[in-house]
Every structure is written in structure tokens, then in C-alpha cells.
Amino acid sequence: MSAIADDYESLQIVTDTVAAWAKKDCAAFDRQELLAELGALIRDGYAQAYILSARPPHRSIAEYCETRADEFWFMLTLAGIRALKQLD
């Protein structure tokens, strides 16, 4: 959740961030697990997938699909921000 809490983040940025955290903690990193977790956060209403564009509308909510995850940008919803604050 922390990787998508501050701004719209691409899957590459999320993957790089989580992989760096895992390496720092000497933990295993699995991209498929990350994709599944993003899907769960979206399904549970804690995050949303978006298509961003330079033209209006600049942001459109996208239906999450793991096979197309590289096309999306991710950000926490208000419920996700509240849940993350409770974890701190």
C-alpha cells in the first residue's frame, strides 16, 4: 500500500520500490504475488487502477487485469489511505 500511497504510480515504479524493500529486508520478491496483491487491494476498494492521458479526460478508472497491469497507474483510494494510517 505504501508504494502507491503518495501519487499515481506505474507498475514498474511499484515493482522497483517493492523489490528494493524486499532486498533491504532480505526477503523474497515475487512479481506475480505483487500483481495478485494489487488486484486484491482494488477488489477490496483500497486502491484503483487508472489510465492516464495528456488529453482530457486526463485520468480514467480502468478495470484491473493482471495481463494488462503494465498499462495502468495505481493509487490508493481514501479507504486505502485510512487503512494504511491504521497500520502505522
Structural description of this entry:
- Strand 2 and strand 3 (59-62) form a beta hairpin.
- The protein has one domain (2-87): Arc Repressor Mutant, subunit A (Orthogonal Bundle), CATH 1.10.10.
- The chain is globular.
- 42% of the residues lie in helices and 18% in strands.
- The model has no long low-confidence stretch (mean pLDDT 95).
- Strands 1-4-2-3 form a 4-stranded antiparallel sheet.
- It is of the alpha+beta class and 88 residues long.
- It has helices at 11-24, 31-43, 78-87, and strands spanning 9-10, 47-52, 59-62, 73-76.
- The count of β-strands is 4
From the spread of the alpha carbons, the general shape counts as globular
Report the helical percentage.
40-55%
CATH architecture: Orthogonal Bundle
Strand content: 15-25%
Topology of this structure?
Layout: E1 9-10, H1 11-24, H2 31-43, E2 47-52, E3 59-62, E4 73-76, H3 78-87
Antiparallel strand pairs: 1-4, 2-3, 2-4
